[in-house]
UniProtKB/TrEMBL annotation:
Organism field: Enterococcus avium ATCC 14025
Residue ranges occupied by any HTH cro/C1-type domain in the UniProt entry: 74-105
UniProt GO MF annotations: DNA binding
Membrane-traversing stretches: none
CDD domains: HTH_XRE
Alphabetized InterPro entries for the sequence: Cro/C1-type_HTH, Lambda_DNA-bd_dom_sf, MqsA
Domain of life: Bacteria
Protein name as it appears in the record: HTH cro/C1-type domain-containing protein
Pfam short name (any one): HTH_3
Length: 165
């Protein structure tokens, strides 16, 4: 699809990066935004294929400053336990659409972040699963608890091998 400037009709753009001051929740942040600038009139446009890219950059900077989990890490936690988005969301007590949005870049709430942190450790996840067994078939529970037991052992072995000096 051919890109065209809405101001002057030109179809030539150059990619530029601009440091922007933005506010995300309670934090004032400096975030590098990416734009496409018309070579003729200077009009700036967000990425034509990824219009939310700069918003996601803002959210990722906020996560980094707050030491919160990034969307990729949240997705990795879910996949570590072989859970679908619907299964993981149900365990955490959030909607499937909320989890999907967070995994795709939307900013999680502080309460969601706490749930993700709890589920990050196999022991925390086992507590969630044990309290919500009715959500799964007997077969799925058995598979999940077996996986969690194995991961708990691995986590403790890893802790034991990390000596404090």
């Amino acid at each position: 699809m051919e890109r065209m400037c809405y101001e002057c009709g030109n179809d030539s753009f150059k990619e530029i990066n601009v440091l922007k001051s933005v506010k995300v929740k309670e934090l004032e942040l400096e975030v590098e935004h990416r734009y496409f600038e018309c070579s003729n009139c200077g009009e700036r446009y967000a990425d034509f294929d990824r219009p939310n890219e700069n918003l996601i950059r803002n959210y990722n900077e906020y996560r980094q400053r707050k030491n919160w989990l990034m969307p990729e890490k949240i997705r990795d936690i879910r996949k570590k336990y072989h859970l679908s988005q619907k299964e993981y969301a149900s365990l955490l007590g959030i909607s499937y659409s909320t989890l999907s949005a967070i995994e795709n870049g939307s900013l999680q709430s502080k309460a969601h972040e706490s749930q993700f942190i709890l589920s990050q450790s196999a022991m925390g996840m086992k507590r969630l699963v044990s309290r919500n067994k009715e959500m799964f078939s007997a077969k799925k529970i058995a598979e999940l608890l077996s996986l969690l037991d194995r991961l708990i052992v691995e986590e403790y072995e890893k802790l034991g091998s990390e000596s404090v000096i």
